[in-house]
């Protein structure tokens, strides 16, 4: 079964610190790897995404690092802020496929 | 996201009752999805529809049914609710011309007693 394994389940980071969330996948057909951010009471929303032709993508304080050979990718949040406190989901799909496979989620709490 | 709306936002029902969750979108997207969210399990796909005449089961469709009444409307039904269907339910949409990004509604919190 296609799976995306996400860790840690929860994370507490001091304001200004770096938050790191890791994901691993099995299906080598996956070619699109998004991260979704979910605030309490809201639906998930796309945060940043990467395709495997690059090893890193940065948007502001958010960076995805991608290791194709290890089948792993991670989200780094630099200078973490209390407003970043949310649940983060990694995901994977193959273009032309019909399913996005989500990780179990990571609850991030940034302490002020 | 105001472009994808779900009703009701909260619902408490009893075991054995039939319940319908509704989703509407103004994004003009052709693809719609129903997900279930449980703590520690992430988002799991219940059903998906690529257009009005195309409906497919996801990974956890047992006990659920759907109806795509129009391109903009996709309803999820629990024919006979049971307590382990207590969860947060999300509708999502995507555009087949840009199919990689999914846009989620605000969710429906369902409790089955």
Give short descriptive properties of this protein.
heterodimer, A: 112 residues, mainly beta, six-stranded mixed beta sheet, five-stranded antiparallel beta sheet, 0% helix, B: 113 residues, four-stranded antiparallel beta sheet, 11 strands
Helical fraction of chain A equals under 10%
Oligomer: heterodimer
Strand content of chain B: over 45%
Mean pLDDT of chain A: 93
Largest interface: A-B, 22 and 24 residues
Give a short overview.
The complex is a heterodimer of chains A (112) and B (113). Chain A is mainly β. Chain A has strands at 4-7, 10-14, 19-25, 33-38, 45-50, 56-59, 62-67, 72-77, 86-92, 101-102, 106-111.
SSE layout and pairing:
The complex is a heterodimer of chains A (112) and B (113).
Chain A: E1 4-7, E2 10-14, E3 19-25, E4 33-38, E5 45-50, E6 56-59, E7 62-67, E8 72-77, E9 86-92, E10 101-102, E11 106-111
Parallel strand pairs in A: 2-11
Antiparallel strand pairs in A: 1-3, 3-8, 4-5, 4-9, 6-7, 7-8, 9-10, 9-11
Chain B: E1 4-7, E2 10-13, E3 19-25, E4 31-38, E5 42-51, E6 54-57, E7 64-70, E8 73-78, E9 87-95, E10 98-104, E11 108-112
